[in-house]
Amino acid sequence: YHSKLMEAYKNGTLKLAKGFYGGKLTPKNASHEHIIPHSKGGRDRLSNYVLATKQLNQARDTMPFRNFVKVEPLLEYLDAILNSDCVEFDTLQYVKDIIKTMLRALREGK
Predict the structure, then answer these.
(1) 68: pLDDT strictly greater than 90
(2) I need a surface site. Which of 15, 52, 57, 79 has the fewest CB within 10 A?
(3) Who contacts 77 (Cβ-Cβ below 8 Å, separation ≥6)?
C-alpha cells in the first residue's frame, strides 16, 4: 500500500528514528501499521496509519491496541512527527487524527 506517510518517510522529509511501537526504523523495515486492524473494522486511511517496524507490526498482529502499545515510544513518534519538515501532509492534523483513532481503539477494545 502507498500512502503520503510512507512517501514522506522514504523521501526523507519525515525523519523518524523509531517506529510507533519503538524499534529502530529504517526504509527497509518500515511498514504501515493500522491502529485499528482491518479485521476489527479499521480502514486504509492516513488517520489509521502509523509507521512501525515490520517485526513489531507482525508481533502485534490483531492484538488489541491497549495490550501492545507503550507510552514512551508512542510519544517519541508523535513528537518526531510534529517536529518534522514534512510537506506531503499536515502533520498537526495527522497527529490529531491518529489520537482520535487511538482513543476509539482504546474505548472499543480494538
Answers:
(1) yes
(2) 79
(3) 16, 18, 19, 20, 50, 51
